[in-house]
Specification:
Layout: H1 2-5, H2 7-18, H3 22-33, H4 36-60, H5 66-88, H6 94-120, H7 127-150, E1 171-172, E2 180-181, H8 189-195, H9 197-209, H10 214-230, H11 234-251, H12 253-258, H13 260-280, H14 285-291, H15 304-321, H16 348-375, H17 381-396, H18 406-434
Antiparallel strand pairs: 1-2
Helix pairs in contact: 2-4, 2-6, 2-18, 3-4, 4-6, 5-6, 5-16, 6-18, 7-9, 7-10, 8-11, 9-10, 9-11, 9-17, 11-17, 15-16, 16-18, 17-18
Length: about 425
């Protein structure tokens, strides 16, 4: 019976290890076997089956609690909302509607799987093992990204990458071939940048809390930060600043409180220096390209900053005009596959409200908010790293289709589910000892 109860835990470890390499493995292995669409869908089918098994085992073994039940109910409600809007919009393109439903709802399913797995096998899924797995996977992904920067820019075309097969083989700043951006084994540079935020936070936390293996952690952190820099993702850089600042605030709360005046003056001075320096150097080639992603030689009719704002604004206006939603798959990355055209919002909140209406957005924010509410009660490394990265993700969701990427979604939401279960298991142990 214990072996059966461990199946969700094994599935959880497998997904955490596999998801960062999914794109690369799918593209390369399908060259040998064919069936690219099957390879792409396999992970989601696996997730669905694993979640069903997990829910069944949790209730059969009476491991459920109020948090798990509420999370499961909210996940079902969120999925039903997608189906309801789809039913109201029967004319939407079915393939993208299916993808939109899967991509949007799987983020919550990851959390259900992680929590259920840890409730079923608390001695098998431990904080130490999970952190080790995530840091190792993140460092390997980062190392491959750094290596990619020095390889021929068309190297991934030999592994099945192409626009026709759904993944660009190379990225450049404003299509300038002398300014490459790395994405390692993920879909694009922005996805790599936001994926690395959790490993970076965990590695920094390990440096603060462990006296051993300092050199290993420093080396891993340097590799992660270098890969993050080479993505040239401004959103990723901003997210890293937010996440690391939040993490330091959590770890050094009392020290920060004592030195608040010095910290405030230093931060204000730093921002002023950066602001003045950025203004003075605004016409320099490096600033124009690496920070602004636009210079006089850029051929686009509007730069990326204006494009982000315009797309988000247009999506928000359309969402307000149609508060019931346009249907799953009508916005975001998957909508590009619609022959009649899709809607890029460059804002995950706007994307959800555009697809499944205000009710869908409220459900998603309620699920995320509830998970964060539970997480902030825990003081461990895992919880603090997830909270710090979540603060960054809250902001970055306004700049990109954040949770669409499977690696980013799997990592954070599975870890969140596991951490919540660890909190529940810890409280049960304390109660048992006291009685």
């Amino acid at each position: 019976m214990n072996d059966i109860k461990r199946l969700p835990a094994k599935a959880t470890y497998l997904l955490l290890a596999y998801m960062p390499f999914h794109i690369f493995l799918t593209q390369s292995l399908s060259l040998l076997t064919g069936g690219l669409s099957v390879w792409k869908a396999a992970k989601d089918v696996f997730l669905g089956l694993a979640v069903l098994l997990t829910i069944f085992l949790v209730y059969v073994n009476k491991k459920q609690n109020k948090i798990f039940t509420l999370l499961t109910v909210l996940a079902i409600a969120y999925g039903l909302q997608h189906l309801l809007v789809w039913f109201m919009r029967p004319d939407i393109y079915r393939p993208t509607a299916i993808l939109g439903t899967v991509y949007n709802t799987r983020v919550v399913l990851f959390a259900v799987l992680g929590m259920g797995a840890a409730l079923l096998a608390p001695n098998y899924i431990t904080q130490k093992r999970v952190i080790k797995l995530v840091v190792i996977a993140g460092t390997i992904v980062a190392a491959l990204g750094v290596i990619q920067y020095f390889l021929p820019k068309d190297i991934l075309t030999h592994f099945g990458y192409s626009v026709a097969r759904g993944v660009k083989p190379a990225f450049f700043i404003d299509d300038k071939v002398n300014l490459p951006r790395v994405m390692s084994t993920l879909r694009d540079p922005n996805s790599l940048a936001v994926y690395l935020l959790v490993p970076i936070c965990l590695t920094i936390s390990l440096l603060f809390t462990n006296k051993k293996n300092k050199q290993i952690y420093i080396g891993a952190l340097c590799m992660q930060v270098l890969a993050l820099f080479l993505t040239f993702s401004r959103g990723g850089w901003l997210g890293a600043i937010i996440a690391v600042s939040a993490l330091l605030a959590l770890h050094f709360r009392s020290w920060i409180h004592k030195h608040m005046k010095i910290i405030t003056v230093s931060l204000v001075s730093g921002f002023l220096v950066l602001g003045v320096g950025g203004y003075i150097l605004r016409d320099q080639y490096i600033v124009q390209n690496l920070i602004l992603h636009s210079d006089e030689s850029t051929q686009a009719s509007e730069d990326s900053n204006a494009l982000h704002i315009r797309l988000a604004k247009e999506g928000a206006i359309a969402s307000i005009k149609t508060p019931e939603g346009h249907g799953p798959g009508t916005a975001g990355i998957v909508s590009i596959q619609n022959p009649s055209g899709g809607t890029l919002t460059e804002n995950y909140y706007v994307q959800i409200s555009y697809e499944v209406g205000i009710v869908g957005l409220i459900l998603f924010l309620s699920i995320w908010g509830y998970i964060l509410y539970v997480l902030q009660k825990q003081k461990g490394i895992l919880a603090s790293s997830l909270m710090a990265s979540a603060i960054a993700y809250l902001a970055l969701s306004m700049l990109m289709h954040l949770w669409t990427n499977e690696a980013v979604a799997a990592q954070w939401w599975i870890l969140a589910g596991i951490t919540i279960a660890l909190i529940v298991n810890k409280s049960k142990n304390i109660t048992t000892k006291n009685t």
